[in-house]
Amino acid sequence: MTTHTNAYGQPIGPPVADWTERSRPQRDVMSGRYCQLEPVDVERHGRALFEAYLLEPDGRDWTYLAQERPVSLVLFREYLGRLAASADPLHFAVIDTATGKAAGTAALMRIEPLHGVIEVGYITFSPLLKKTCASTEAMYLLMAYIFDELKYRRYEWKCDSLNAPSRAAAKRLGFQFEGIFRNAVVYKNRSRDTAWFSITDAEWPAVRKAFELWLDPDNFDAAGCQRRALAAILEST
C-alpha cells in the first residue's frame, strides 16, 4: 500500500480526486425482477404490511428494533405514518412482484452527502419476505442505487452486537465486519453494543457481480432452489 505524506512528512490518507458532495437519496421507485422498492405510504402499504407482520406468531422480529410490533391496525398505521414522514431515515416498502403486495420495509439512514456515507437499517421483513429472492434483491437494489446512481463511497450496516441473524445477514450480503462500539446506544431501557459492517465503493464492483450472478434465473433449479449460495459466489469473485 502506498504511503502518502504531507509537507511535514506526516502520513496522510490518499487523495480523492475531484470529490464533490453527493446528492441525497430521493423517494424513488427501484424495480427488479423479484421485487420493487417504493417510498412507504400508509394507504398503499399499511394493511398488507400489518397482515404480513402478523404472520409471525409473536414479536421476536422486533426485539432489536427501536419499538415493539404494533398490536392493532390503528397503531400500525400511526407507526407507518411516522416512517412515511421521515426523510432520514428514508423508508421504503418492499413489494413482492409475484403478489404485488408489500411484505417488508428497509431504510436509508444517517445520510452524509458531504462524505459520501450512508447506512441501511430499520430492515423489517415479514415471513413472506424472509429467505426469498425478493429480500436479497431488495438489498441489491439499494446498494446499486447508492453506489451506481448516487456515487457514495461507503455503505454501512449496523446492528445490536447480540443480533446474530443480522450479523450473519450482513456477512452474507458482502459487508465487511469492522468492530464493536461498546455502550453505543440505549434503547428499550437497555444498553446496546453496536456491530459495524461496511462495503466501500472499491469493493462494490465485485459485490455487484456476485449479486447479479446469484439473482440470475439460471442460478435456480426447477424447484426454485439456489445452485450456488451468494456467500460462495462472493468468495470466488
Number of strands: 10
Low-confidence runs of at least 5 consecutive residues: none
CATH superfamily: Gcn5-related N-acetyltransferase (GNAT)
**In which order are the strands of the major sheet placed?**
3-4-5-6-7-8-10-9
Number of domains: 1
Secondary-structure-based class equals alpha+beta
Query: Nearest-angstrom radius of gyration?
Result: 19 Å
Q: Helical segment tally?
A: 6
CATH architectural type? 3-Layer(aba) Sandwich
What about the largest sheet? 8 strands, mixed
Q: What sequence of helices (H) and strands (E) makes up the elements?
A: EEEEHHEEEHEHEEHH
| CATH class (first level) name | Alpha Beta
Mean pLDDT: 96
Residue share in β-strands:
25-35%
Which fold does the CATH topology refer to? Answer: Aminopeptidase
Assign an overall shape. Answer: globular
Termini Cα gap: 21 Å
Q: Approximately how much helix is present in the residues? A: 25-40%
Folded structure, characterized:
The chain has 237 residues and is α+β, with helices and mostly antiparallel strands. It has a single domain, classed as Gcn5-related N-acetyltransferase (GNAT) (Aminopeptidase, 3-Layer(aba) Sandwich), CATH 3.40.630. It contains six helices and ten strands, in the order ββββααβββαβαββαα. It has helices at residues 42-53, 73-85, 133-149, 164-172, 204-215, 230-236, and strands spanning 4-5, 11-12, 30-31, 35-39, 90-96, 101-112, 117-125, 154-160, 176-187, 190-200. The protein has an eight-stranded mixed sheet, sandwiched between helices. A hairpin with a 3-residue loop joins strand 3 (30-31) and strand 4 (35-39). It is globular. The model has no long low-confidence stretch (mean pLDDT 96).
